[in-house]
Design brief:
Helices cover about 0% and strands about 55% of the residues. The chain is mainly beta.
């Protein structure tokens, strides 16, 4: 059990005897009365999102999930297939379950699959991924010093703002928590 003020985005909690993932939190301090935590939580089984207000003194049951390292194999429709490298056991998760981590799934990437009571419920991608730029505007000579970015489409369809010197075919490193450009990678 943790204080409601310690609830953070990405945590799993038990609320009304069901498992929820915290999507967003905001600490609200009204002019009169005690502070509270306004949280958006996603029901794991149904996928529905609801707003819930925790008082600052409330205790929340935080759930710690088991994680197994797996490798992303392929996408089949809206289903994504992963394999445990030790046991060769395969697991499938829907795109709806994976949510905003889908654009970071490239073939053979190793990541952590989160399990609750033995069933997969989500993934924890690596901190950064390396992807190839498949489409962007050509670099303009002399604009390498400017601080203005340009959009680049990655191999998974993800669009990232990159510096002007990045060209089509370059491989870049992307931060999976923010979806932002980190650096160009030489291969």
């Amino acid at each position: 059990m943790i204080q409601a003020t310690q609830v953070r985005k990405g945590m799993y909690i038990r609320h009304d005897n069901d498992l929820y993932r915290v999507v967003a939190t905001e600490h609200v301090t009204p002019g009169k009365g005690r502070g509270m935590v306004q949280a958006k939580i996603r029901h794991i089984r149904s996928g529905s999102i609801m707003d819930h207000r925790f008082r600052s003194g409330d205790r929340v049951d935080r759930i710690v999930l088991e994680e197994r390292e797996m490798e992303f194999l392929y996408k089949d429709g809206d289903t994504y297939h992963f394999m445990n490298g030790e046991t060769y056991e395969q697991t499938a998760l829907s795109g709806e379950t994976l949510g905003d981590t889908v654009p970071y799934l490239i073939a053979n990437i190793k990541l952590k699959v989160q399990l609750f009571e033995g069933s997969p419920i989500g993934i924890n991608p690596p901190l950064t991924v390396e992807m190839e730029v498949v489409e962007t505007e050509p670099a303009i000579k002399g604009s390498t010093v400017s601080n203005v970015g340009k959009p680049a489409t990655m191999e998974t369809g993800l669009i990232v703002q990159v510096p002007p010197f990045i060209n089509q075919g370059d491989v870049i490193r992307i931060d999976t928590s923010s979806g932002s450009y980190v650096e160009r990678v030489s291969r």
